[in-house]
Amino acid sequence: MERRQVLLVDVFAEEPTGGRPVAVVPDASLPDNQLDAIASELSTSGVVTDDDGTLTYRDRDGTQAVITAAVGGYAALSNRGSIASGTHELVVDGVQSAPSDPFLVDLADDGSVSVDVPHETPEPVTVETEKIAAAVGVDVATLDDVGADLPAAKTDAFGGTVSVPVNFLEHLSSASPDVGALASLLESEDCSRLFAFTFDTLEPDTDVHARVFDPDAAGNERPASGVGAAACSAQCARWSAFDGDRERITFETGRFIDRPGRIETTVSEQPTVGGTALTVLDADISLPPEEDGDGIIEV
Asked: Each residue of 12-48: pLDDT tens digit?
């Protein structure tokens, strides 16, 4: 079997096994079936490959985690000295409803990465608050008071995001989504994820606490979503959640599924989203033959 080096990278992580994982294959381009096998074996949404300085993200599970992939790929290769700081482009494969790529990615000297997200247009959702509350698994009263000034909204990019403000962390922390109601809500709004958030945070230097609910994820929740943070930032910009006093905000994520993460964004309908990433595994693996879509990988 052919062997290739693969990195497992925790994106937006503050510590190993935090944030959201992505696989990175340095110095190689591979056929789709081998990339999908790597992602499946390492339980990631997709794989970033580096082919002579050109980074491409191959989406495997349809979650369109393009921003996560950009931060993970460029941070990991920067840490290895494979890519210099500056502005780069990420090419995307296997994503149907993302804005046109390539995406501009800025790699700072300290290894942090930021992505310029195409213009988001948040619009109020059409479903009743009672149905949103049932999908999130909270009392409707926890949405009503904050929703008077900041309504639940949706954006279409990257498969679509429903962003739902919740009044206090106490209520968001105990949220228990109903998978059927969640799936029905997202289907009715033609969206892939629900980004529930509150301005009541655990840490003194963060601005928003967020949970990312997805009926296709293990336990119906993902630890982080750069796409979701972008949608939320655009929503906060449109409805002036920060009264125009803040240009940048910090999200804390993944705290209640033991994968803590941290995402930085600008407050804009065309936000910049960024963060850091940690390489937690550097291994050689055996790949299935190119013509075999069901081969087993050995690490």
From this structure: 998 999 999 999 999 777 889 999 999 999 999 999 9
Pairing label, strands 193-198, 161-165: parallel
- Say yes or no to pLDDT of 53 above 90: no
Asked if 255 contacts 199 with a C-beta cutoff of 8 angstroms, the reply is no
Encode pLDDT of 187-207 as tens digits: 999 999 999 999 999 999 999
Q: Are residues 109 and 128 in the same domain?
A: no
Q: Are 92 and 194 in the same domain?
A: no
Q: Are residues 104 and 158 in the same domain?
A: no
Structure tokens at 280: 């937690």
pTM listed for this prediction = 0.93
| Rounded-to-integer distance, Cα 101 and Cα 104, Å | 9
Q: What angle do CA 189, 208, 185 make, to 5 degrees?
A: 15
Q: Which CATH number goes with the domain that contains 233? A: 3.10.310.10
**Among the listed ranges 33-42, 178-187, 283-292, which one has the minimum average pLDDT value?**
283-292
Q: Are 163 and 132 a contacting pair, CB within 8 Å?
A: no
Do 101 and 92 contact (CB within 8 A), yes or no? yes
pLDDT (0 to 100) of residue 293: 53
210: CB partners within 8 A, 6+ apart: 195, 196, 197, 228, 229, 232, 251, 252, 253
Give me the phi and psi of 55, to 5 degrees please.
-95, 135
Domain presence at residue 296: no
| In contact, 200 and 165? CB cutoff 8 Å | no
b/e sequence 33-44, b meaning 16+ C-beta within 10 Å: bbbbbbbebbeb
Quick check: 135 and 142 in contact, CB under 8 A? no
Strands 123-124, 208-213: pairing is unpaired
Phi-psi region of 17 (alpha: psi -120 to 50; beta: other; left: phi over 0): left
